[in-house]
Amino acid sequence: MSKANANQGPLPALPHNVLIFSPSSLDAAKALLNGRIFTKLAATTRTTPEQLAAVVQKITPKESREKFCLPFRKGILIFDGADPETEQEKLTDEHHEHFREVCLALKDADINLDFSACIFDADQILKAGFQLDAMSQGAVLVIDLMDSGDEDDDDDSDDEDEDDEVTEAKLNALVSGNTVQAQ
Q1: 125 lies in which domain range?
Q2: Could you report the per-residue pLDDT of 3-42, keeping only the tens digit for each?
Q3: Is residue 5 part of a domain?
Q4: Are residues 104 and 178 in the same domain?
Q5: Distance between CA atoms of 143 and 128, rounded to whole angstroms?
């Protein structure tokens, strides 16, 4: 390690909702950036990113898979329509076939979806809850706008109860005319 690197410390990590998609071909990056129909599948909270990545690895050859499917932290983004010449009906059929292929792979891996967090057949990437930015050398910066980073852990319920007690104490103090310290 060079002296300059040793003095800089560890490289900063990406935020939890940011992914850099570095496909093996430029066509896959173009397919994502120029997509015209998007489906966001959200897995249940028990599913790990590693489980989702393993499922995606089983879907068709990598070169084909990267052109329509992207695993992210809590789910899978399916995208189609990079070719502007494709008619809408044919595009929708192709997208639904990719959706079926991904769902069958999820079923085989016994991974369930959180349907309340899924978005189907969005005509813009923003409507699917993502922002995309082209990067150098064919990479794409993918930001999951819907991922707040909160996990649904049961351990948090104790913290919420404590917060409720503090808030209730503050309200009681205000009602009785006492001052409340800011925290």
Answers
A1: 13-152
A2: 445 556 676 788 989 999 999 889 999 999 999 999 999 9
A3: no
A4: no
A5: 11
